[in-house]
Amino acid sequence: MATQNLTYATVPTQFITAANGIKFAYRRLGAKKNIPVIYFNHLTSNLDNCDPRIMDSMAAQYEIISFDYRGVGETSGEDAKSIQEMAKDSLAFIQALGYEKIDIMAFSMGGFIAQELMEIAPNLVRKIILAGTGPRGGKGISDVVKLTYWDIFKGYLNFVDPKFFLFFNSSSSGKSAAREFLKRIKERTENRDIPARLKTLQIQLKAIATWGHEEPADLSKFTLPVLVINGDNDRMVPTPNSYDLANRLPNAQLHIYENAAHGAIFQHHDDFVKRALIFFAS
Fold it and tell me: Which of these, 63, 80, 62, 105, lies nearest to 24 by C-alpha position?
């Protein structure tokens, strides 16, 4: 499908049925490549939660593909109960598309899933960006449950999307970045995706809590190039986890944005895209 004149706000949603019987909803932007960039998104995200500035800018040089996890948005099936199950679903989706090698750009829970994907398909990933995320068993990862529910409550009281608090600092620059990001993800006005259900939130939070208490993985065996990125004040997946990831992955580089939180790549989307393009091209 030609997408030269399309943007992430206008590109159609496509569907493909994988060998596991799940019908995946996905969006593909940019000229078709042998090695695409697969975007793994955050907790309760659907296709509309991808930042269009990042997706459009990446698509200028790469084919980038976003998708709904099982049971989320327009993807069929019941919600996966564990991070490992989500990884198996993701592998089924990638295989259905016919790719034998991919690059990954993963944010938050998407980074958890991507790490488990590398465990079960160690030769699949060429390069990976891990943003706002951490390793299995990482310090404070299991605390995301209570933090998420608290910020959902704050969002309800303040009539704003909880991501206003979950992803950004309370500084003036953080609040400004939050407003701009929340405006951007509403740019698509037609054929929007189905919002995640409360059940999905509960199941995914339980999966994250479990993963956060599991035994750490041996990350030293992953020698592929890795770019680890975060803000210096990530409350959801505490920033020390990014340092931990970079230290444990043999071929990793690390960048920490100052005065930024969990959604640092959205607050600094222009700079992030420049770094991502250089990383994938190098």
Answer: 80
In our burial notation (b when 16+ CB lie closer than 10 A, e otherwise), range 114-143 reads: bbbbbeebeebbebbbbbbbbbbbbebbbb
What does pLDDT average to over the chain?
Answer: 96
Please state, in angstroms and rounded to a whole number, the distance separating the CA atoms of residues 167 and 266.
9
Task: Find the DSSP H helices in 125-225.
Answer: 144-158, 163-166, 172-184, 198-213
In eight-state DSSP terms, residue 20 is T
User: Apex CA 49: angle with CA 94 and CA 99, to 5°?
Assistant: 10
**What per-residue confidence (pLDDT) applies to 5?**
81
- Say if residue 6 is exposed, middle or buried (CB neighbours under 10 Å; 0-12, 13-18, 19+): middle
Mean pLDDT, rounded, for 254-263: 98
pLDDT for residue 3: 47
Local structure of residue 131 (DSSP, 8 states): E
How far, in Å, are 15, 113, 139, 267, 272 from residue 144 at the CA level?
A: 31, 16, 11, 21, 24
Is the CB of residue 196 less than 8 Å from the CB of residue 109? Answer: no
Region for 27 from its dihedrals, namely left if φ exceeds 0, alpha if ψ lies in -120 to 50, beta otherwise: beta
**How far apart are the two ends of the chain, measured CA to CA in Å?**
28
Confidence (pTM): 0.97
Q: Give the residue among 68, 60, 144, 50 at the shortest CA–CA distance from 105.
A: 50
Residue 2 has pLDDT above 70, yes or no: no
Compute the average pLDDT of residues 65-86.
98
Domains parsed from the chain with CATH numbers: 14-281 (3.40.50.1820)
Q: What are 169-214's pLDDT values in tens digits?
A: 999 999 999 999 999 999 999 999 999 999 999 999 999 999 999 9
